[in-house]
Amino acid sequence: MVLGKPKDKRLLKVKPTKEQLEETNLLIKKKIGKLSTSIKIPPAVNQFKTVLPQETAERVYALFSKYKPENRKERFARLSKEDPKEGPKPIITKQGIRHITRLIEGKKAKFVVVANDVEPLEVVLFIPSLCKKFGIPYAIVDSKKSLGGVVNIKRSCILALCDVKAEDKSEFDDLVKISNDMFLDQYEHTIKIWGGPGKQKLN
């Protein structure tokens, strides 16, 4: 008698309802909130609690939106021309953590914007230190959805500009100055401050 392989009897998983998912997400947020006030938060993580004011962040989104990547219709219209590469190279908002990391290291990025609600935060944790090392202006905002809306996707953890048009130069310089006053120039100070209970400064 030849014995076959035992059948793999897997139990069917019941798909959670929308209410159950919302309840689970709420529970996770409560746990994160309690942990954030009960354990010490390293300075590298704690610095992401400082974000641009909403009014300034809206100005940043508006500026970056002027250079959003082309959509399908625009791309089709460009490729339909006799010479798709005709004219000057377009200035567009850069996205993608690896791509922007290379732009920072090559000192090609002129302004970097990072979201602080990225999960896991380790994905963008090194960006402020990298920007400080290469002297690249950066800012932290509180919404990856807002960054994603700039480049026609749901969410984006980081965006960058390598250049702007002449008519946007004054607005760009003003936003860079505000961001530098909050982040780049304060880096040495913020990287010494712990978060959580009994906040303390490193010597």
From TrEMBL:
GO terms for molecular function: RNA binding. Pfam families: Ribosomal_L7Ae (PF01248). GO terms for biological process: ribosome biogenesis. SUPFAM superfamilies: L30e-like. It comes from Nosema bombycis (strain CQ1 / CVCC 102059). The lineage of its organism: Eukaryota, Fungi, Fungi incertae sedis, Microsporidia, Nosematidae. InterPro entries: eL8/uL1-like, Ribosomal_eL30-like_sf, Ribosomal_eL8-like_CS, Ribosomal_eL8/eL30/eS12/Gad45, Ribosomal_eL8/Nhp2, Ribosomal_eL8_euk. The gene is RL8A. GO terms for cellular component: cytosolic large ribosomal subunit. Residues 94-166 form the Ribosomal protein eL8/eL30/eS12/Gadd45 domain. Component of the ribosome. This is 60S ribosomal protein L8. Keywords: Ribonucleoprotein, Ribosomal protein. Belongs to the eukaryotic ribosomal protein eL8 family.
